[in-house]
Structure formats: structure tokens, C-alpha cells
Amino acid sequence: MNEETACSPVGNARESQQPGEHLAPTTDLMGCFQTYSREKPEAVALWCLGIGFVLGWKLKPW
Questions:
Q1: Distance between CA atoms of 16 and 8, rounded to whole angstroms?
Q2: Which of 26, 30, 44, 56 could connect to 37 by a Cys-Cys bridge, CB 3.0–4.6 Å?
Q3: Are 12 and 28 in contact (CB under 8 A)?
Q4: Which are the contacts of 6, defined by CB distance < 8 A and separation ≥ 6?
Q5: Is residue 7 within 8 Å of 27, Cβ to Cβ?
Q6: Residue 7: how many CB atoms within 10 A of its CB?
Q7: What would the pLDDT profile of 52-61 be if each residue is shown by its tens digit?
Q8: What is the CA radius of gyration of the chain?
Q9: Interhelix angle for 41-58 vs 25-39, to 10°?
Q10: pTM beyond 0.90
């Protein structure tokens, strides 16, 4: 699987139609996330910071 079709639904659908292949949505999702995080590390860092802030605010022990 090349990088151009790694995260496109059309590319994954074509490749998953081959007989004997099993679907791996978790692996595909992680591959897409890794590709995106390599292309845009600032956006991923800001999302992680924002999610961490909201979770820390909502799950505070007191």
C-alpha cells in the first residue's frame, strides 16, 4: 500500500477486496494517524493539548 492510497477510503476499499485479505480497521486508522502526524505535527500537538486540558478539567479529583 503506498502513501497516496493509505488513507483514502477508495484505495482501501479496492485493496481490501482481494481474496484472502482480512480487514484491519485499527491498523488502517493508526497508519492514517501516523501519516497525518508526520505531515502536520503542530496540529496534532495542539489537539492533544486541548483534549488533555478538557479531560484534566472534567476529571479533576475534587
A1: 12
A2: 44
A3: yes
A4: 12, 28, 31, 32, 35
A5: no
A6: 17
A7: 999 999 998 7
A8: 17
A9: 110
A10: no
CA nearest to 5, candidates 40, 20, 51, 13: 13
Q: Cell triple for residue 37?
A: 502526524
The letter for the amino acid at 30 is M
CA distance 13 to 11: 5
Structure-block grid coordinates of residue 12: 482501501
Could you report the per-residue pLDDT of 31-54, keeping only the tens digit for each? 999 999 999 999 999 999 999 999
Find the length of the chain: 62
Dihedral pair phi/psi, residue 58, rounded to 5°:
-80, -25
